[in-house]
Design brief:
Largest sheet: 2 strands, antiparallel
Number of strands: 4
Radius of gyration: 17 Å
Order of helices and strands: HEEHHHHHEEHH
Length: about 160
């Protein structure tokens, strides 16, 4: 139906950004999201989403960390629309038009990436971003003994490296 199609294809519902995913998030979806994130997002946003990707080392502006409260509060449709339309420095606003007709006229902060990927891959990346955000907020009491052991090891011995 029309509402489901708008949600799936456009990341919109009820005249605004989608507050939910168009279908259940599965392990396979997250694995696909990680794969696509590594291709499209990792160079700028970094492995764990802190905005510390390779582009920063090359002198480009650092993107915001997905772990900032302002981005943790964003609904799924927000991330979906950023992939489809990008954001412009001029206005600071994403989603200038429903069909992205005017995007690219200003100084692009986030490029339009959605045209280069399948709709399912966009949603998978959004799900993976949410997983990255949750991964940095897991209480120690919810970690397994092996996770706790790995956390206590130095990075060069196979421990976690700075949240990555």
């Amino acid at each position: 139906d029309y509402v489901a199609d708008k949600l799936f294809a456009d990341g919109l519902e009820n005249g605004g950004l989608a507050t939910r995913f168009p279908y259940p998030v599965t392990k396979a979806m997250l694995e696909r999201g990680r794969s696509r994130y590594n291709v499209f997002c990792l160079p700028c946003h970094g492995e764990a989403g802190f905005g510390d990707g390779m582009i920063v080392q090359r002198g480009y502006a650092q993107p915001k960390s997905f772990h900032l409260e302002e981005l943790r509060a964003k609904v799924p449709g927000y991330y979906y629309r950023v992939m489809v339309e990008g954001t412009e420095r001029l206005t600071g606003r994403p989603f200038l038009t429903p069909n992205a007709k005017t995007v690219g006229e200003g100084d692009m902060v986030h490029p339009v990436l959605g045209k280069n990927m399948k709709i399912e891959d966009r949603w998978a990346i959004v799900a993976y971003i949410y997983a990255l955000q949750k991964s940095q907020r897991v209480p120690r009491t919810e970690l397994s003994p092996s996770d706790l052991e790995q956390l206590s090891r130095p990075a060069e011995q196979g421990g976690f490296n700075g949240g990555h």
